[in-house]
């Protein structure tokens, strides 16, 4: 019974310690940047030993990957929640929900934005991070294309999805580097205007067909 109780307590502590370390990683990267975010600093911020980081994540790259997986998990869950709560099942509503999730507070806070930038930079040199970035990029474009496809032919839907994905990333990047508070409302509005413009092409095509 003693060993069973000790094992149960240990297993209960695992998610808590991982959460502590991921939060500490965000805070340290926000304060000093990725290059100076040492294992010792992160461990001190979390109030844990450096050995715990090595045990759970291996090294700083493993910790960055775990942190980004959590950020992406938060993004995915927020997107699903928003889409599940929609009052109407239209392509425009789903597309707006995807845009809203990408510009939600959980994705545009200072620590998260700096960690995103560190992740993008590191993904050019580390295969595991590059794969993670590829999966995230493909997921976004696939979700966007799926909704555009409800209103547009496949070639146009793919093009619109690529354009909106690029706009989301571009608006986020410009906002993160502006040196001022991120204006999420302005970014969302620009993305809305783009997706509405793309969806309007169906009406234009129908009107042209009717007059010929």
Automatic annotation (TrEMBL):
DNA-binding region range list: 38-57
Transmembrane segments: none
SUPFAM superfamilies cross-referenced by the UniProt entry: Homeodomain-like, Tetracyclin repressor-like, C-terminal domain
Domain of life: Bacteria
Annotated keywords: DNA-binding, Repressor, Transcription, Transcription regulation
GO molecular function annotation: DNA-binding transcription factor activity; transcription cis-regulatory region binding
Pfam family, one: TetR_C_6
Annotated metabolic or biological route of this protein: Amine and polyamine biosynthesis; betaine biosynthesis via choline pathway [regulation]
GO BP of this protein: glycine betaine biosynthetic process from choline; negative regulation of DNA-templated transcription
Signal peptide: none
Keyword field contains Transcription: yes
Domain HTH tetR-type: 15-75
Cited PANTHER family: HTH-TYPE TRANSCRIPTIONAL REGULATOR BETI (PTHR30055:SF234), HTH-TYPE TRANSCRIPTIONAL REGULATOR RUTR (PTHR30055)
Primary role: Repressor involved in the biosynthesis of the osmoprotectant glycine betaine. It represses transcription of the choline transporter BetT and the genes of BetAB involved in the synthesis of glycine betaine. Repressor involved in choline regulation of the bet genes.
Protein name per its UniProtKB record: HTH-type transcriptional regulator BetI
Native species: Collimonas fungivorans (strain Ter331)
């Amino acid at each position: 019974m003693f060993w069973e109780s000790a094992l149960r307590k240990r297993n209960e502590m695992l998610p808590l310690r991982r959460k502590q370390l991921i939060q500490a990683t965000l805070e340290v990267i926000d304060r000093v940047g990725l290059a100076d975010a040492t294992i010792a600093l992160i461990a001190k911020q979390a109030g844990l030993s450096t050995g715990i980081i090595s045990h759970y994540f291996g090294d700083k790259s493993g910790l960055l990957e775990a942190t980004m997986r959590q950020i992406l998990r938060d993004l995915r869950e927020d997107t699903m929640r928003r889409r599940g709560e929609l009052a109407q099942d239209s392509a425009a509503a789903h597309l707006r929900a995807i845009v809203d999730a990408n510009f939600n507070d959980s994705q545009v806070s200072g620590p998260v934005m700096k960690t995103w930038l560190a992740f993008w930079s590191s993904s050019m040199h580390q295969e595991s991070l590059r794969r993670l970035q590829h999966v995230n990029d493909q997921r976004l474009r696939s979700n966007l294309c799926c909704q555009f496809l409800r209103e547009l032919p496949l070639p146009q839907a793919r093009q619109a999805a690529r354009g909106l994905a690029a706009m989301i990333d571009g608006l986020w990047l410009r906002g993160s580097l502006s040196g001022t508070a991120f204006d999420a409302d302005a970014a969302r509005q620009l993305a809305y205007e783009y997706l509405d413009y793309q969806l309007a092409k169906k009406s234009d095509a129908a009107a042209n067909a009717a007059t010929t």
